[in-house]
Amino acid sequence: MSNIDGLPPLRQVIADHGLSAKKALGQNFLLDLNLTAKIARQAGDLSECDVLEIGPGPGGLTRALLHEGARKVLAVEKDPRCLPILSAISDHYPGRLEVMNADALAISVADHLTPPVRVVANLPYNVGTELLIRWLTPDVWPPFWDSLTLMFQKEVAARIVALPGSKAYGRLSILTQWRADAKIVMEIPPQAFTPPPKVTSAVVHITRRDKMLFPANEAILTRVVAAGFGQRRKMLRASLKSLSPDIGAILESVGIKPTERAENISIEGFCALARALEGQA
Predict the structure, then answer these.
(1) In this predicted structure, what is the pLDDT of residue 195?
(2) In this structure, are residues 50 and 109 in contact, taking their beta carbons and an 8 Å threshold?
(3) Cα torsion angle, 75, 80, 82, 83, sign
(4) Which residues contact 226 (CB under 8 A, 6 or more apart)?
(5) Does residue 116 contact residue 46 with C-beta atoms inside 8 Å?
(6) Would you tell me the crossing angle of helices 154-161 and 128-136 to the nearest 10 degrees?
(7) Domains annotated on the chain, with CATH
(8) H/E element, 151
């Protein structure tokens, strides 16, 4: 791909700029442009979309997104060392790349994007889960984005897509799947990165639902799930007792055995429980 877009190979770019990954910023650079192009394609046709990218680093995925036809890419990069590299990419794709030198956790990007919007990012490991939760829990639904194509540690990706009855199933699974459809679309070995992390990574593609999978009050559902998985080895009658003195009867009223554990309860079951608790208020 470096021959296709006319820009230098990424290894040459980071060498020319003396750029090395900083552990404090959760950086692991993905330098294989064929691989970044494959990730970009997982987001679908980008020609009519604005794309939000968090943590572009030396711009491997940025270049792939632009080469794959993204209408516009908004790249949010905290590390000022990367700005000259991203500026060169912007010059190569005039009018299609906007770079913000900012902390993604501290800014609002909606005003810089025109719908439809897709988020595509190799997220820094230290902020990935927090960003996902923020994108899944806006004040108003549906959110500003249509889909999220995100790279996580494989363990986190497994939690996002996990089903009831598995050890990975938990709060993140329910939070994601209640509001979106999620699937793992790629796995990426450590040696693909510079420096290599200690874990395998995975790309998750998440497509929002216009409406939640089952009706429930979000605040109550959040409390129920947090309580249930906060003590996941306990039976629900014990882990949820702080929510109601009649929790055993409420569980039975929605068809859940009080002796069950949270990891065996479906999203539908948790939503039914949240509705029942709301009725008790």
Answers:
(1) 84
(2) no
(3) positive
(4) 171
(5) no
(6) 20
(7) 2-208 (3.40.50.150), 218-280 (1.10.8.100)
(8) strand 147-153
User: Would you tell me how many other CB atoms lie within 10 Å of the CB of residue 191?
Assistant: 8
Under DSSP, is residue 107 helix (H, G, I), strand (E, B) or coil? coil
**What is d(CA 202, CA 188) in angstroms, rounded to the nearest whole number?**
6
Q: How far apart are CA 152 and CA 199, in angstroms?
A: 10
Token match 């994601």: residue?
176
Tell me the whole-structure pTM to 2 decimals.
Answer: 0.94
With left for phi above 0 and alpha for psi between -120 and 50, is residue 18 left, alpha or beta?
Answer: left
Cα distances (Å, whole numbers) of residue 104 to 25, 63, 154, 222:
12, 20, 22, 24
Q: How far is CA 118 from CA 41, 110, 128, 155, 214, in A?
A: 12, 12, 16, 23, 24
26 phi-psi bin (left φ>0, alpha ψ -120 to 50, beta other): left
> Does position 151 have pLDDT exceeding 80, yes or no?
yes
